[in-house]
Amino acid sequence: MSELVERFFPAKALLTGLRAVGYSFSSAVADIIDNSISANATEVYIFSDPLVSIPYFCFLDNGHGMSYDELDNAMLPGSDRSDKIECEKELGRFGLGLKSASLSQCREFIVVSKKNGQINAMSFDLDIIEANNKLLLKQLNKEEIDELPQIQKLLEYESGTLVVWRKFDKIRSLAKNFEDSFRAAVSESQRHVELVFHRFYKQVAIYYNNGRINRRDPFLIDSVGRQQTGRTSTINVDGSVITIIPYTLPFANTLTKEERDLLGNPKSIYDEQGFYLYRNRRLISWGNWMRMGIRSELNKLARILVDIPSSLDEVWMLDVKKSSARIPDKIKDQIKCAVEDSIVRSKRATKYPGHKEQSIENKIWERIDVRDGIVKYQINRKTPTIKALYEELGEGQKDLFEIVLSQIETYIPKYSIVNDNMDSLNIANSGDDCEEERLIEEIIQLIDICPPDNKMTFFEEIFLSEAYQKLRSKKDAIKKRVFIDD
């Protein structure tokens, strides 16, 4: 009969591997906040200071806290989670988050927890563990606890937990200036947290150094009439339900400042398209199409909310960091059908942004159908200003003027205009920003050079021109001003 032989992992090698799981500073911060939400916290405070003698980054929550046995279990890599009940607020998975996330960023983390009036604290210090090659945890005494940052705030809570990160060896090893790099990491983590936990905003107040984080909404749900919400669909997988809701954002150039703030002021709307995958309402992955190959400029307004329960973690291949997943092959076709509506709407909104052009009798540019599949844009020679100028020119000057117009028509920067439009840039020379007073002065100048017997007819023609359409409602007042001396 074969024999089973127990082996003990060398702590130093095990923890070195655990540190290399691949957390960013931001994803590590989010993993600790998961624990606070799972503990039913309604407040989470994040404090940091890179200038004190021992720089720190810490988390404080008013959750249910931990007893000594619970804390001892929580500090164990791969802690026992058999008593955890599957529910919407349970965001943990492997029992590794506290340790792997913390150690990915620092060499020492301390956990202090208050429950039933009792306070317990333990320190996980790699310097001690590596020196002994054993998993030795330090239990802090009262004097050591009292010296910890923000400890007084924990004592004010009926229950709660404080997690303190110290000894930031990874930031120091890469930073040109520790303070600058530390502050940059903290700032980036706040933006990350705002998005990842945006669906918890009403239930959990998260603060960075006493300032509450900003509210985010990647779907602009409150922009009724401009944002479009598609039909909700569900997929049943092994008895669990996946919910899918397609959204289409308003065209980028029409977004208000408030809407851009809700989106987090992304550098490019293009980069944020795709699936927004949530596990128990916590954002896991976003801004990609999860290898479905439909990323494009025309799809840039499409956002697909996908809600999965934690019971499907293995099906979606959710990683330890809870920051990436893969669509199961067996439901890809169903998901494609569910997102088609959002993609069609995005293409329509991207191709035909903004308001439709009004029907104007004298447009500056005319669109001419040359033949099948070919159109030409040319300057309308019948606009009042061009007609007036043409009549003032001599024969040689008229020929030169026609050459100039022809060159302008031939060398329209059509590709630059298309690219700028696709990049959601505001093209300033649209005519919308022309000041009324400047336009009125132009009309006065045009009337001045017009033959006396044709002034009134020409005045009426001016307001049929695209360039002066915005002044039509004020035509009578302008008429009095133009003909004041007549």
Keywords:
single chain, 486 residues, alpha+beta, 6-stranded mixed sheet
Rounded Rg = 32 Å
The largest sheet is: 8 strands, mixed
Strand content: 15-25%
Low-confidence stretches: 354-359
- Count of distinct strands: 16
Helix proportion: 25-40%
- Report, as a whole number of angstroms, the end-to-end distance: 120 Å
Helix count, DSSP H or I runs of 4 or more residues: 17
Give the mean pLDDT.
83
Q: What's the shape?
A: elongated
- In quaternary terms, these chains amount to single chain
Structural class: alpha+beta
Summarize the structure.
The protein has helices at 11-19, 25-38, 68-74, 97-103, 126-132, 142-146, 151-156, 169-174, 178-196, 257-263, 332-351, 384-392, 395-410, 414-422, 436-449, 455-462, 475-482, and strands at 43-49, 56-61, 108-115, 118-125, 138-139, 160-166, 205-208, 211-212, 228-229, 233-237, 240-248, 274-279, 282-288, 302-308, 365-371, 374-379. With 486 residues, it is α+β, with helices and mostly antiparallel strands. Strands 5-4-3-6-2-1-7-8 form an eight-stranded mixed β-sheet. Strands 9, 10, 11, 12, 13 and 14 form a six-stranded mixed β-sheet that branches. A two-stranded antiparallel sheet has the order 15-16.
Chain-wise SSE layout:
Blueprint: H1 11-19, H2 25-38, E1 43-49, E2 56-61, H3 68-74, H4 97-103, E3 108-115, E4 118-125, H5 126-132, E5 138-139, H6 142-146, H7 151-156, E6 160-166, H8 169-174, H9 178-196, E7 205-208, E8 211-212, E9 228-229, E10 233-237, E11 240-248, H10 257-263, E12 274-279, E13 282-288, E14 302-308, H11 332-351, E15 365-371, E16 374-379, H12 384-392, H13 395-410, H14 414-422, H15 436-449, H16 455-462, H17 475-482
Parallel strand pairs: 1-7, 12-14
Antiparallel strand pairs: 1-2, 2-6, 3-4, 3-6, 4-5, 7-8, 9-11, 10-11, 11-14, 12-13, 15-16
Helix pairs in contact: 2-4, 2-9
